Amino acid sequence: MRSFKTKYPMLLSALAIAFSGASNADDSKKNDMEIIEVSPKGLISYVSASASKSDVPITKTPVSVSVLTSKRISDLGAETLQDAIGYVAGVYNGPYGVDTRGDWSKVRGVDPLIYVDGLQMQFGHYNNTRTNPYTLERVEILKGPSSVLYGQGSTGGIINSVSKRPHSETQGEIWAQVGNYDRVQLAGDYNTAFGNSDEFQARFVGVYRNSDTQTDFVEDNTFVFAPSFAWDINQDTRLTILTNIQENETGSSTQFFPHEGTILPAKYGQIPSERFVSEPGWDRYDTEQLAITTIVEHSISEDTQVNWSTRYSDSSSEYRTIFASWPPKFNADKRTINRIFSMSDGESKSLLSDIQLHQYIEFNDVEISIVAGIDFQDAETRTSRLRGVVSSPLDLYNPVYGLNDPLPNEITNIAPEQVNTQLGGYIQATFEYNNFILNTALRHDDLEQKTWEKVGDVSSLLEVKKSQSALTGRIGGLYQFENGISPYVSYSESFQPIYGLKPQGGSFKPKEGEQIEYGVKYQPAGTEHLITASVFHITDKNHIRQISPLEHVQDSEISVDGFELEAQLEWENLDVYASYAYTESNMDTTPLSSKEIFAQATLLAQQVQDPAAQQQIMAGAVLMTGTDDVSLSATPEHLASVWATYRADNLVEGLKFGAGIRYVGKTFDGSRSISIGDIDYHKALTTDSFTLYDMMIGYQMDDYELSLNIDNLTDKTVITSCLYRGDCFYGQRRTVTANLKYRF
């Protein structure tokens, strides 16, 4: 049998040849299609700026990228960025369940970095607001290592959100929404142009929401105001200023429930998914942010342009939560858990800048597009923490709150700040000769991490500097057949410095990764369809694993192999978004696996009362160190989804129906099974696969649009993942929203 790495590239090559052969029988259609940026309904984008920092057709890009337009996001009824990416191939949205604190996902088995308008948005952990999808024009998911252009990107990729920008048309929208969990939201989007020749444009986007969540006592309130301004200084120069003012008031909807009572049977049954482990009135995750982005676009000549983007961002958070004592487990009564409180105040200030030169050159029959640039980041982060034991346990089946001693509200021990600076230079050259495209890129980064650490028992702080540098590259080739088939191959690298300190103290090493990818892109002539397929192999060094919320371990190397297929199809009355992904992952902790094995064995031994059994468990740990690999946690082997919308104008003008199905395969907890002889002391856990159904119905009459969206139509209780450290996560329960939009 052929190995995974050789079997699928050959399959893709065969598909490409087959499609190419089919095209010869229908050459008459090969020039029927006009290349446009977005499909007539606004659902399919044919270009991406993230893959090459310039608007390039997806079928000419030798890497894997998916683009979600604002129209697509609206049809899906996405309430968060995490919701919006749920149908994208190779993306597992919400691996840790419903979380009001942020937008989590796994792209090709790895956590992606979040960018907005081509600039990194988040530095550190739990210190800023989450992006509101109503403020976005589109979302681009660039899969695989992308450091060559962005400097910082995980091996999984980046998610780049593009903000709504001013334009020359005067138009507006008012959106009212109500839903279950007492959700009430009001939003608006107004654009206008003024001046002698409409050279000035302004846009105002705002959102106000007051809502509860599926977790008891946890709210999800927000206020967003995003005004923007553009000035066409002359026919060659445009200035755009984007502002984002945001305040979120919520708590921790993620409760870190124990294995027993979630994935494992419990004496008193399943722990209710709405159960709240913290204390009402004290628990909160309140964040605020001010971000100002300036973008200058200047054409020196028809073939030479300069783009310059700069953002200043200031964000802060106040985080108060309580979770089960670690590892999460029931007390002897099998009803109550002991608890730990955790407090953190986070701050993040960043100044980012990226200046790019775009040059187009024709040399005989070769077209050359060059992007050269310099980017700079200066990020200051500070996280002050306080943790302690909650005096009273909590009954997870019949909770009574407020029995504990008073909890603190303020953190008096303010942590020192950490300053991270990065200066990077990059150049990308794309050569196009007839139907062949070669993309090459190279980048160099210099980074400095500055922290202040205590000297012994003395209260004074010592400045500590750490410098790093990295050279990353990418090369890819693509060939466009006349019928729209474009097979490609690429190699890319990533380098990701980790900002902030480990919860247990100390700084992280940078993560390094590389990927080789084979793929085929297909835009059938005479249609609006866009179909992509790819196989890839990724390695990621210095991977981070969470032993508990209080300890992060960075001692492993992972490898990920996968296959992805994504089809965006559009006809007159029907459009379909379908995807499938297979992901095979391995985490190798050799030779530093002993720390993990002994930590895991110690936790097991604490649960066993028999001293002889404890001794056997620890002896087994010695035998298990430095051996076989394990699969990555919270990473499904199989993901499949289909969303279809039927616009029934032939029946009733303005009526539309949408339905979706999402299949999530089994996930692993990231641990090894431990056995001694015939005795199993630890069995690695595997979550069950599950299938969810979504639906939408809408009706548009003149300037008014009514719609109803339902996620998880059958209200199925699912476990999105369980981790070997001891906790499990519930997925989204049935969520219903009714919408009224008025456009003018």
Explain what you see.
Helix content is 9%, strand content 53%. The protein has 744 residues and is mainly beta. It contains six helices and 40 strands. A hairpin with a 2-residue loop joins strand 27 and strand 28. The N terminus is likely disordered. The strands form eight sheets. The chain has a 22-stranded antiparallel beta barrel. A five-stranded mixed β-sheet has the order 3-8-9-6-7.
Architecture blueprint of SSEs:
Layout: H1 4-24, E1 47-48, E2 56-57, E3 65-69, H2 70-76, H3 81-84, E4 91-93, E5 105-107, E6 113-116, E7 119-120, E8 136-143, H4 147-150, E9 157-163, E10 171-179, E11 183-194, E12 200-210, E13 220-234, E14 237-250, E15 257-258, E16 284-301, E17 304-324, E18 336-337, E19 339-363, E20 366-389, E21 394-395, E22 418-433, E23 436-455, E24 458-479, E25 485-496, E26 511-522, E27 530-548, E28 551-570, E29 574-588, H5 593-606, H6 611-624, E30 638-647, E31 655-664, E32 667-668, E33 674-676, E34 679-682, E35 686-687, E36 690-701, E37 704-711, E38 719-722, E39 727-730, E40 735-743
Parallel strand pairs: 6-9
Antiparallel strand pairs: 1-2, 3-8, 4-5, 6-7, 8-9, 10-11, 10-40, 11-12, 12-13, 13-14, 14-16, 15-39, 16-17, 17-19, 18-21, 19-20, 20-22, 22-23, 23-24, 24-25, 25-26, 26-27, 27-28, 28-29, 29-30, 30-31, 31-36, 32-35, 33-34, 36-37, 37-40, 38-39
Helix pairs in contact: 5-6
